[in-house]
Design brief:
Blueprint lengths: L3 E4 L5 H12 L3 E6 L9 E4 L5 H15 L4 E4 L14 H29 L2 E6 L3 H4 L5 H21 L4 E8 L5 H4 L3 H9 L9 H11 L11 E4 L8
Parallel strand pairs: 1-2, 1-4, 2-3, 4-5, 5-6, 6-7
Helix pairs in contact: 1-8, 2-3, 3-5
EC number: 1.1.1.100
Family: Belongs to the short-chain dehydrogenases/reductases (SDR) family.
Keywords: Fatty acid biosynthesis, Fatty acid metabolism, Lipid biosynthesis, Lipid metabolism, NADP, Oxidoreductase
Length: 234
């Protein structure tokens, strides 16, 4: 049966692969974006997750077009990398607001309809960096680690209503951004990955669609790494 799915930041990269994977299953899929094009077959909703009023308006629009959100994928995020001693308060706060507080905003909105239905799936897109740390990414790693605590708290709060909350933690994924890295840096990265290659966006999407499926109905509060073994032991 087709479900109402929302993927934040689902107009490009990993988010787009996730949105398209749900659409291929026959789900009704909405994606948030901040003004760029949205591929055919997806409902594009302009929304900046750092703006509570825009989030509220986005959920109202999705409810009208597709019905209340039943599957939420909190994927929208930004980076602003620099070393700790150079990092400004604004750089830290901006990344936390987009990646962590933005996920709280959409989860809170999604939860009310899921509670009424007594069914729901939330998947938060974190990163291997949230578990291992990364020099120059104090703000980003903190925001991605925070998603684990958020998801696990939601899992405990809402589990009795048949609502699951899980985390997918991708490692290095082949995207336009990684394609632009110098060859030497690409080799250094791959040298750390036991499988010796980047993930594809589709491999990350497969983990997300599984967590939202009936097959994963008894999985909640989990952190699923899709990182080629990079973060083992975390």
């Amino acid at each position: 049966m087709a479900r109402s799915v929302l993927v934040t930041g689902g107009n490009r990269g990993i988010g787009l692969a996730i949105a398209q994977a749900f659409a291929a299953q026959g789900d009704r899929v909405a994606v948030t974006h901040r003004g760029s094009d949205v591929p055919e077959g997806l409902l594009g909703v302009k929304c900046d997750v750092t703006d509570a009023a825009q989030v509220e308006a986005a959920f109202a629009e999705i409810k009208e077009q597709h019905g209340p959100v039943e599957v939420l994928v909190a994927n929208a995020g930004i980076t602003d990398d620099t070393l700790l001693l150079r990092m400004s308060e604004d750089q830290f706060a901006r990344v936390l607001d987009a990646n962590l507080t933005g996920s709280y905003r959409v989860a809170k909105h999604a939860a009310s309809a899921m509670l009424r239905k007594r069914w729901g799936r939330m998947v938060f897109i974190s990163s291997v960096v949230g578990l291992t740390g990364s020099a120059g990414q104090v703000n980003y790693a903190a925001s991605k680690a925070g998603l684990v605590g958020m998801a696990r708290s939601i899992a405990r709060e809402l589990g009795s209503r048949n609502i699951t909350a899980n985390v997918v933690a991708p490692g290095f994924v082949a995207t336009d951004m990684t394609d632009q890295l110098p060859e030497k840096r690409r080799e250094e990265i791959l040298g750390q990955v036991p499988l010796g290659r980047y993930a594809t966006s589709e491999e990350v999407a497969a983990a997300v669609t599984w967590l939202a499926s009936d097959s994963a109905a008894y999985v909640t509060g989990a952190v699923i790494p899709v990182d080629g073994g990079l973060g083992m032991g975390h």
